[in-house]
Every structure is written in C-alpha cells, then in structure tokens.
C-alpha cells in the first residue's frame, strides 16, 4: 500500500489535489490515457522527457489513488493497458483547463524559460 | 536568471503549465496570494508542511516566471509583500478548479492515503 506520511495540512483543496496530481507527469498521463494512449510504451513515447522508471512510479501511484486501473491481458508477451476510473474522469475538467492554459501561453512560457 | 534546462517536449499544454505550477506549493501560493496573504510569514503559516527554504525557492521561481511580483518596502525592518501579476491572474480559473476538486474529494483522498 502507499506508505507516504499523510501531510498534516489537507484542509486546503489544492493541497488535496496536489497529493493526487502533484507528480510532474501525472496530469499528462491522465490526459494521454483519456485520449486513448493506454500502453506503457505509448505513454513513454508521448512523454520522452520522463524516464520509464518515473512514469511507472507515477502510474503506480495513480493506480493506488484509484485514478487509473490497469488491465493485464493473459497473452504472450503479456499486454498491459491503463484506463481512467470514474474517479479519474472527475479530474478531466481540471486537466483540460490546465491543457488549455498551457496551450494558450506556450510561447510566453518558452520565452520565460530561456 | 532561471538556469533550468528547457525540457525538449513542450508541445503538450500540460507540460507547459507544469513548468509554471509544477512545484508542490506553487498552486497553493498563487491561491493564498490571491486571497490576500502577501507576506512570507503569512504564506509559511498557511503552508506549515513546507520548509521556508522550499517556499522561498518556489516564490523565486514564480517571480522569475512573472506569475508574482515582489514589493520591498523601505522600512526597518524591511517589509516584503507578493502580488499576482496579470499573467499570474490568468492562472486563477485553473487554480480555482483545482481547489474545488480538492475540496469536493477531500475525504476520499484522505481515505486513499491511509
């Protein structure tokens, strides 16, 4: 089970959601899985900056937080796919608003990072 | 100036916004500053789980990304206050949707963390 110490201060809604989507790639993974990218290899290809270890760790945490569910197909070689749970789908309005802001401000942010 | 390597893949809007609000406390800081908590001491009190060093680092990054501006009053002892910039205010719809989701799902998330 997820062994992290529960942060004392969860009365702020943002601290609560950051517990769930706080990892760097979690929002991207939720967005990608919702747009049909289900397999670890596809998710890695979509997020080349992330190491496979970090992606697997963050997928594991999303699974433990009941945001995604993992389906293993009894095939050779075994096939794994991720799906959003109903709870995970409740995050889509937030994730979409993040995507929209990022899209609208991409040039500005890239300039700021230089 | 902010020396971080620019991640290669910024074509996904979420990767862009995570560059700006990706730090664990940044969304909380934006929310707190917008609700009138301006001084480092007030922000620390509101986020007791965060060390002063981490808060100062994330405030510095928010300032470098033009999300907040810092005002130093020529008094003894000197007084410092943070304000959202117009660019920072453009994040408020996203931050509010995060706060709302967190508020609505607080009990569920706390159960999941146990």
Automatic annotation (TrEMBL), chains A, B:
Q: Name one GO molecular function term.
A: DNA binding
Q: Which UniProt keywords apply?
A: DNA-binding, Transcription, Transcription regulation
Residues making up the signal peptide according to the UniProt record: none
Provide the HTH hxlR-type domain boundaries: 12-110
Q: Which InterPro entries match?
A: HTH_HxlR, WH-like_DNA-bd_sf, WH_DNA-bd_sf
Q: What is this protein called?
A: Transcriptional regulator, HxlR family
Q: Which organism is it from?
A: Pedobacter caeni
Q: What is the lineage of its organism?
A: Bacteria, Pseudomonadati, Bacteroidota, Sphingobacteriia, Sphingobacteriales
């Amino acid at each position: 089970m997820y062994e992290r110490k529960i942060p004392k201060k969860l009365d702020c809604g943002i601290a609560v959601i950051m517990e769930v989507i706080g990892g760097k790639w979690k929002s991207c993974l939720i967005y990608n899985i919702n747009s049909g990218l289900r397999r670890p290899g596809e998710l890695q290809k979509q997020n080349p900056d992330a190491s496979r270890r970090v992606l697997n760790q963050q997928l594991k945490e999303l699974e433990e937080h009941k945001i995604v569910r993992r389906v293993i197909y009894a095939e050779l070689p075994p096939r794994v796919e991720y799906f959003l749970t109903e709870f995970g789908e409740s995050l889509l309005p937030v994730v979409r608003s993040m995507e929209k802001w990022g899209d609208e401000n991409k040039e500005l942010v890239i300039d700021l990072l230089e």
